[in-house]
Amino acid sequence: MMNTTSQDINKFKSLLQQKLTDKSFSSVTTPERANTSSLVFTSSVAMTQTALQNGATGFIVLEKIYDDVKGLFLDHHCVWTTKDLKAAMSEVLTAFDRIPHTIGVHPSAIVHPTAQIGAHVRIGEYAVIKDHVVIGDYTYIAAHVVVESFCEIGAHCRIASHTTIGSDGFGYYTDKTFTHHKIPQIGQVVIEDHCELGSHCSVDRATLTETRIKAGSKLDNFCHVAHNCEIGENSILAAGFMTAGSTVTGKNLMTAGGVHLNGHIKITDNVIFAGNAGVVSDVDKPGVYGGYPQVPQKDNLRIMSSLAFLPKLRKQVSQILKHLNLDEKD
Question: What sign for the dihedral angle of Cα 45, 46, 48, 52?
């Protein structure tokens, strides 16, 4: 039986690849689907018991539960411990990744001759890379991605399928007859290093300067970043995130699903928005916010819990007014 810490995960990954362990594992799976050739991650006694019942012999166990489960293992089990399961997964799962990672441009992709493509870049099926685009080293552009003219994508980025970088910003002038005239969007989009965008995202080019997503930021599927916006470093934005134009967010922004930001506002560093928050004004203090319009999340939870009592409260107020011979409209 082996017992290591999360610092040994890289060594473990190497052992798996070199097949130097006395056990070989063909897959990583859940405890419910485990078998004798499976490696499983467990964070509770129940998960560990389920995996054992299904015949699993390889385990990566959350360190804090190890004392509770170590008596369940036999000599033929291989057991590693980690302080952080997700950190371990980020290292170990690469050894089991079955998706091919062929470097180069797929024959069906269209890459303009003026585009600058870095080393070890992968460009997938039917992707379109237009003129004067810059793509950094080790970046992956998936199938059906469109990168419009003069946009820049940094190194070690991942752009998932059907995402568009550099679509026109939503800019119009409306005259006295209510006719809408397009304002040309002549800026660009800059995506810095180590960013990831999920599928079906849209990042609009700026009117004059740039729309920028800063280094380390991760966007889920179906996110929209409007023209002239800036997304701060290491932001992580869940599906359905949308921001109107010219909004600037600080670093480490975290959002749950369906968060919408108004235009021309500023969000400071280290802010979290709860699901479906509607952000209508500047947020200048770090913290957790929710609701529409946004308030500190503690207040939002009080408001939400109070809604169920409003019909009863309204009836009570009506009775009081009637007793006082007052009209509700007074």
Answer: positive
Structure tokens at 290: 């929710």
Among this protein's residues, is 200 annotated catalytic?
no
Which one, of 73, 10, 11, lies nearest residue 42 by Cα? 73
**Residue 65 DSSP label:** G
**What Rg do the C-alpha atoms of the chain give, in angstroms?**
26
Given a contact cutoff of 8 angstroms between Cβ atoms, the answer to whether 112 and 133 are in contact is yes
Q: How is residue 74 written in tokens? A: 């036999």
For residues 167 and 299, what is the distance between their CA atoms, to the nearest angstrom? 38
Is the peptide bond between 113 and the residue preceding it cis, with omega within 30 degrees of 0?
no
Q: Which of 227, 260, 264, 323 is catalytic?
A: 227
| Per-residue model confidence as pLDDT tens digits over 141-197 | 999 999 999 999 999 999 999 999 999 999 999 999 999 999 999 999 999 999 999
